[in-house]
Design goal:
Keywords: Membrane, Transmembrane, Transmembrane helix. It is built from 18 helices and two strands. The chain has about 450 residues and is mainly α. The protein folds into two domains: about 1-10 and about 20-140 and about 165-190, no CATH class; about 200-455, no CATH class. A hairpin with a 2-residue loop joins strand 1 (about 295) and strand 2.
Length: about 450
Amino acid sequence: MTLRYFLLDYYGDCNNASDYQWSTLLILIVQTAAVVVGTIAPTVRWFKALRYIRKASRVGSNNTNRRFHVEGYWTESLFLMKERPLGFHIHNKWFRKKAHDAKVLLFRLLIKLQKGIVLINKVTQFISIILLYFTLAARDCCSNVSSTSSGTEPQSGPDLRRFVLHLEGEEELVEVMMKDIHKTTNQLFHVGEKKEPKHVIELITEKSSILEGFKRVTTFDNDQVSSLHNEETTPYGWALPLMDTLSVKKFIGALSEGLYYVKFIECNIDKEGKLIKVKRAAETMWHGVDLYGKWLDVDLYKLSHQSKSPRETLETLAEDARKRYGKYKTKYREICNREPPSSWPIEVLASNAMYRISQTVLLNYGRIEDLRSEILFEELTGTISDILGACLTNLPYAISAKCSNSTIAEREDSVRDAVEMLGRTKKIIALLAEKIPTVDFSQSTTIEYWLLMHMQNNNTF
């Protein structure tokens, strides 16, 4: 703005108006804002880096003699290229020798230039620290005086410094990195604590048979009910049984909360990707039940009102599942003949799962003469709670796997997600460890494992 008025005053005698008119002022404002932002942002980062390095200098004061040392990684690539043969062949030996000597001289010059640039940056960094030392020291002194009374004692525990990723010459930064990592981890953990799944905890503590080792996991499937597949058995995964036994709207909120953690577990323990189609089938079924109250286009609410009894509802579901299985099996005949059952289309998997579960419920409770909705509701609630609780015993293993399954480039985000998940599920893990101390939480378990365990020994817990 000042520049604009200066220019108007300087060229005040000119009667010709600018062709750009008002856009000149707009351009001036935009350019000024860009200069301000482009100056402030790097300055803030500069101050933060200097404060970080100054802390490390205090911690690693014994290594100050390395401040102006040029680490090997700055010139390692240039040294390798210097010693490497020429990339093209020269027949004349004398010319080949001279070309190689010229290349060596060139890379020696580049190495010295690289070292000089690095040293200039190190000197600039050192001068910046000296200039800001007194300002930052005064501020730190004031903050230390106010926090002296509430200071914490040094934490005792294993030495974790060898796990901190750092470059050569940054050994003095390791302590500061650990403090920042510890601070960030605590913040993420507390964020997760505020998002704990209260409805899931209530469902497990009140409805599941946790003291008996989730024994009702076995009630959702029965070997006496044959699969619609003629081939090998399809693995269930954890989410698919929860989808198919869901028949009461009251539990949609609790299961929606719980399925978030089931998905986290399945994504981190299924390293070989055997349950990809099963997981997709569960997600698709849940989408239909949650939003529309439908399973594979079957209106569950309408069906429950049309049926005269729970037994009739289950029989209708089983028959409809059998018909849909045949229709989808015919439609995807080529895929089903080529792929194993675990890789079949999700409609086929969901139909088979619903058929077996409906028939199993009929087998378990169909003999009850007065099978009222309330009785079946309580039994299915217990089954759902036990399946969910048994699945959540995989949380410690899944959280640990989350930290190690990713590549180094993705490791930071993975660890952050794992720490937040640990904060969310702290109470659930503590509850399961207290009530089921015999389960090895360091290993992953499948729903087939729980079925086999209870079938072999009903008195394990």
